[in-house]
Write a structure and sequence with these properties.
This protein is mostly helical and 291 residues long. It has 17 helices and no strands.
Length: 291
């Protein structure tokens, strides 16, 4: 750096205006990247130049879909792949949470850590599993070796988060990997409870076959069936009731459960098991008197 640059850095006038804007132009979509290596040679710290309100250079280049410029930045200093934001997340966390496959795949190919932890001890796979839509990121991360068994600060695996969020495709992909069906998070929630609460009824049977305990209760004394009734997921409630009939069920809950599952096909045996008629008794009517 020139002597004037040392002075500007000392008095807080950094990064220098001219080189900063030249680099931003090179990083922008369709920008000419030929001058970028020269800027990085003269200002090695330019790879992290970021003024207030601007994106970090690598983030900006990827956001602009200028992958040629992004490759130059990474080649200059590969440690920028591990740079973290205020919440402790890397760029891979961000694009996993968005479900944007092209930037995600680019970062993984360049060597981004698929198991990096943020401040909540969540990996990019956790972030991808939490997203309800655009969930193709989960299979991609699994294909590149992301660990599916890591728990975050709340004791939740990516599978638990996928079930809680109703992320059907992500949950199905994660259940193709070995998992503990009896896992419980820090709040007493099981995988079966999460599936019942979010209405992922088609995953209840696989969870039970894998060893999930249907009578497990959370700190409020609620079972998976109770949660399915609370959230009005009739199909999930019917499947759970067909497997296990509670020893005791109060009148109010029985009425709610009956109203929930009565319209469903195959509910007759389940209704009888809790002492309810398959269909409500028709009201008796009398003809109007004739005068």
């Amino acid at each position: 750096m020139r002597i004037t640059d040392h002075f500007k850095k000392a008095v807080g006038m950094w990064p220098p205006k001219g080189p900063y804007h030249a680099m931003r132009r090179a990083l922008s979509g369709g920008g000419d990247t030929r001058g970028l290596p020269a800027i990085l040679r003269e200002y090695p710290d330019a790879v992290r130049w970021e003024k207030k309100g601007d994106m970090q250079p690598l983030h900006f280049a990827i956001w602009q879909r200028n992958y040629a410029a992004a490759e130059i930045l990474i080649e200059h200093d590969r440690s920028i792949l591990d740079d973290k934001n205020k919440s402790g997340g890397t760029l891979l966390h961000e694009y996993a949470s968005r479900g944007e496959l092209k930037p995600l795949t680019f970062l993984v190919h360049e060597g981004a850590n698929v198991d990096a932890l943020d401040n909540n001890r969540r990996t990019p796979l956790h972030q991808a599993a939490m997203k309800r839509y655009g969930d193709d990121a989960v299979p991609v991360l699994l294909r590149y070796g992301a660990r599916h068994d890591l728990k975050d600060s709340e004791g939740r695996t990516p599978l638990m988060l996928a079930l809680m969020g109703g992320n059907k495709s992500a949950a199905e992909a994660l259940m193709q990997k070995p998992y503990a069906a009896t896992q419980i998070d820090n709040y007493g929630r099981t995988l079966l409870m999460a599936a019942a609460e979010s209405g992922l009824a088609h995953l209840i049977t696989p969870l039970l076959r894998a060893g999930a305990e249907i009578t497990e209760t959370n700190p409020l004394g609620e079972t998976a069936l109770d949660l399915a009734i609370k959230k009005k997921h009739g199909v999930a409630a019917l499947q759970l009731l067909q497997v296990h009939v509670p020893d005791e069920i109060d009148v109010k809950k029985r009425r709610k459960l009956g109203n929930l599952i009565r319209p469903l096909d195959g509910s007759t045996p389940a209704l009888k098991s809790i002492g309810l008629r398959p269909s409500p008794k028709p009201r008796q009517t009398w003809p109007s008197p004739k005068f």
